[in-house]
Amino acid sequence: MSRFKDLEGRQGVVIDTMVFIYLFEGHQHYADLCEHIIGRMSEGFFSGVVTPITAAEILVKPLKLRQPSIADRYRSAIRNLPNVTLPSINTEIAFMAGSLKAKYGMPLPDMFQAAMALYFPAHTLITNDRAMGKLKEIQIVMLDKMTGR
In whole angstroms, what is the distance from residue 111 CA to residue 96 CA? Predict the structure, then answer.
């Protein structure tokens, strides 16, 4: 698919939480696209990053709904993805997130996602959060643009 051309060979593309939520919950507009993104990453078309922010956020809904088995499946799916790095947040990333928060005034979890994208070589974040489009330091790949919405 030509919509993936910009991702080819990139190392360390941050996959935002909503990509996994749309996939896991079978979102009617985005599930197929998100499955394709994860598939391309798993095949090695590009390498991905799942941040600690995403690892935390993905568990909130199933745990809130008292569905620990679903939360366990999500954990397992994330841990077993090929061509994915599951990094820790280090002090340098925290400094970057703070700087981005000061510059853009956006929520700190979003700025940690952006800082992770800045930290890894691809400098790319796949998301559907329009507010992230303000960021100049990294490339934002919007799901809506990939679907033509």
Answer: 8
